Amino acid sequence: MFSYPTPFTPPTTEDDRLSWLRLIRSHRVGVATFYRLMAEHGSAQAALAALPGIARGAGVARYDPCSQAAALREVQAGRAAGARLLCRGEPGYPAALATIADAPPVLWALGDMDLLERPMVALVGARGASSLGIRMARRLAEGLGAEGYVIVSGLARGIDAAAHAAALGTGTVAVMAGGVDHVYPAENATLAADIASRGLRLSEQPPGLEPMARHFPMRNRIIAGLARVVIVVEAAAKSGSLITARIALDQGREVLAVPGHPFDGRASGCNALIRDGATLVRGAEDVLAALASLPEALPTGPAPARRAPGGAADAPRPVPVPPASRDEGREAGAGAGPLQRRILDRLGPSPLSEDQLIRDLALSAAVVAPELVLLEMDGRIQRAPGGLLSRA
C-alpha cells in the first residue's frame, strides 16, 4: 500500500463540490484516479485543468473533462429527486465508508440521513433464495435491528429484499447500483419507496442512471464498506454475494455465513466461506457475539492477506487508478516506453494485484504508478474491483 504526499481535504465551498463532481464524472476518471489526481494537483480545479495534458501524454489527442453545465444538471436532477449530495470528508458522509481505500468521493442520499450515524451490518445473499433462506434473512434483520443495528443491503430480489423489508421499522440502507432514483429490479419499486420514506437509499452514480453489469461490484464495495460485518445468507459458489464477501475481507471487515445443506447449490458459497474461516451464523446471537469481539475502531486500510473461498491468499489491496479514452487499433506494447513494456509483459488477461506487479518489477510505487495512469488512459490496461490489473 502506498500513499501520496498531499493530505486529503474535503471541499469547503459549493464551487469545490461542483469541481469534485466534475472530476469524478470526467471520462474514465474512476475513484482511485480521482484521489491520485487530487493528491498530485492539490485540488479538483487544478486536476481538471491538468487532465487534457495528461491525456495528451497518453496519446489521446482530444480530451474534455466533464463540463460545469453537466455537473449542474446532475445537481439539479438530484435535488429534484429529493436527494442530497455528500462529499467524502464532509459532515454526514458515513464514517465507516470513509475508511476504505476506494471510498466514493461523492454519494447521493435519499431518505433518513441519521441512519448513517448508526452502526451497520450488511446482509446479502441469493436472488433466487429458498423459503428457509428468506425466513433466516428476516429473522436476522429483525433481531439485529432490535439491538440497534442498521441493516444495509443492495435492494436485489431474494435475500436483500427480505432483509430490507424486515428492517424498515428499525433502520435499513439500500445501496443502489444505478442512480439513487432508479429502482432495479422494478419489482422492488414499492419496497424502494418505503425505504426512501422510512430508511435511506444511497448511490455513487448520477441520478437517473440505469445500472450496467460493471456497476454491481462497485455497489458491493459500498455495502461492505458501510458495515461492521457482512453476513452471507445463501450464496452459490460463483455469485455476487461472494464478490461482496471477498471485497469485505479486502477491506478488513469480518465475514459471517449461514450454513446450508451440502446438496443445495444455493448454500455452496456459504459453506465454502465457513470452511475457509468465516464465522458460522445460526441466529442474531452469533452475529452479536462476533460484533462484541471486534475492536472499536474500523481498519483504515486493506486487511492482511487472507484466504478467499477456494483460492490462495489475496494480496493486500492497494489504492487503484483509472482515467480516459482508448485507441482500439493500437497493438499492445507499440509506442510504449521501456517501463510500460515491462508492465505490459507482466500483465495478461488474468487479473494481477497492483501490489504484486510492483513487487515483481522491483520498483517503487512512485515510479510505477504514473506509468499505470498513462497505460490506462491509453486503454492498454484495465482495472477490476479489488485493485486488480489486466491487459485490456
Q: How would you characterize this protein structure?
A:
With 392 residues, the protein is of the alpha/beta class. It is built from 15 helices and 12 strands. Helix 8 links the parallel strand 5 and strand 6 (200-203). The radius of gyration is 21 Å and the shape is globular.
Question: Any chance you could write out the topology, listing elements then pairs?
Answer:
Elements: H1 14-25, H2 31-41, H3 44-57, H4 68-80, E1 84-87, H5 95-98, E2 106-111, E3 120-125, H6 131-146, E4 150-153, H7 159-166, E5 172-175, H8 189-198, E6 200-203, H9 215-226, E7 229-233, H10 240-250, E8 254-258, H11 268-275, E9 279-280, H12 284-292, H13 338-346, E10 352-353, H14 354-361, H15 365-377, E11 381-384, E12 388-391
Parallel strand pairs: 3-4, 3-7, 4-5, 5-6, 7-8, 8-9
Antiparallel strand pairs: 1-2, 2-6, 10-12, 11-12
Helix pairs in contact: 1-3, 1-4, 2-3, 6-7, 6-12, 9-10
